[in-house]
Amino acid sequence: MPSPRNHPIAYLEENGDFPHGPYQKDAPKEVFLAAGLAVRLQTKIGDESIRYIAKKADLSPQTLLNILKGASWPDLRTIARLENALDTKLWGNEHRRYYRRLHIWLEHPNQQPR
Is the backbone of residue 58 left (phi > 0), alpha (psi -120 to 50) or beta? Predict the structure, then answer.
């Protein structure tokens, strides 16, 4: 099992793609939060340049790229800066939904998760 200090991409299955997965069955809840944040962030960035958004949020472009690739855990300060710069909510509750689905699947592997 990967250490909790590993980045979100460490919890991908062998054929997984961040942020869409699939993820290892033992992936912690925060991995799904990071993935959901990356999806919302990429959607909000749209066609804007990474450099432009990073500058607007007072972040380095590499920080922004690492979040989008799952190569780092964004901290609260970074999330707040991005939410302010993009005038949107990036923090979500995916971990609850995905964790519940995973739990159901582990208990009933023949049942299709919803």
Answer: left
Q: 78-85 long-range contacts, Cβ below 8 Å, gap at least 24?
A: 79/37, 81/57, 82/41, 82/53, 82/57, 84/57, 85/53, 85/56, 85/57, 85/58
Residue at 29 is within a domain: yes
Rounded to an integer, what distance in angstroms lies between the CA atom of residue 10 and that of residue 114? 25
- Report the alpha-carbon distance of residue 34 to residue 80 in Å, rounded: 14
Rounded CA-CA distance 7/4 in Å is 8
Domain that holds residue 17: 8-107
Residue 26 lies in a domain: yes
**The total number of structural domains that make up the chain:** 1
- Torsion angle of the four alpha carbons 28, 29, 33, 36, in this order, in degrees rounded to the nearest 10: 90
Give me the average pLDDT of each 10-residue run along the chain (114 residues): 72 94 90 92 96 98 97 95 95 64 62 53
pTM of the model: 0.77
